[in-house]
Structure formats: C-alpha cells, structure tokens
Amino acid sequence: MSVPFHCWQCGQALTGMILPVSRREACRACNAEIHVCRMCVHFRANRMIACAEERAEDVSNRELANFCDYFAPNPGAWQGATETATDAARDQLEALFGGDTPEPAKPDDARQALDDLFKGANE
C-alpha cells in the first residue's frame, strides 16, 4: 500500500507520482514544482536553517526545484488554510458567550453612556 502524497501548495493528490521524485515533477493542478524543500520530510519552517538533514546544502528558495540528494517527499507537506490568531480568539469568545460577538461600539455611544451616567448623578 502506498502513502498518498499531496501538493505542498494546493493540496491536490499527486497520483501517479514515480519515486524517486524527478527534479522536473510538477503538480498537475497548480503547476507547483514538487522536488522542493517545502515538500520534503526534512523541511522545518520554524528553524533558521530549514533543513533537519545536517549534511544537506542550504537552499535559498525553498519553493523552487533543487538538486538535493536528501529529498524525500512528505505526505503531510500540505498544511491547508490556517486560521489566524484573531479568528481563533473570536471562535473561543463565541463558544464561551454563545452567539455572535457584538458590533464594536461607536464613539458617540460611549459619550452618550457617559452623559447618561452623570445626568443621573446631578439630579
């Protein structure tokens, strides 16, 4: 049984890909090159030197095809759309308080609330 590979850029299934991957291999859906650092099991986006393979030469553009001899395709290279921290926080607030988050208050609303507060104190 073979492991399904997906394009690192668009997520399209790379069916019929012959291993070892040729430097000229490209995704049929988005035409992204496949023999790239972003598609490799050794790729680490969070490191200054993005390759975990110590013997590999540093590659300046990790999204273009290269001649690295240590390249091995990563079945989990496609990460999909990631949600932003703002979206995650909004989702947590909605889960906590239920329903939609309220519209942001207008500056005039704040002034009116302040006036109403002091109007009651002066009477």
Describe this structure in words.
- The protein is built from 2 helices and no strands.
- It is mainly alpha-helical and 123 residues long.
Present the secondary structure layout.
Blueprint: H1 85-97, H2 107-122
Q: Specify Rg, calculated over alpha carbons.
A: 26 Å
Query: What's the mean pLDDT score?
Result: 82
Helical stretch tally:
2
Based on CA inertia axes, which overall geometry fits?
elongated
What are the low-pLDDT stretches, counting only 5+ consecutive residues below 50? none
User: What is the H/E order?
Assistant: HH
Report the strand count.
0
Largest sheet: none
Distance between the termini: 82 Å
- Overall SS class: mainly alpha
Strand content: under 5%
Percent helix range: 10-25%
Spell out the key features of this protein.
about 120 residues; mainly alpha; 2 helices
Give a brief rundown of this model.
The chain has about 120 residues and is mainly α. It has helices spanning about 85-95, 105-120.
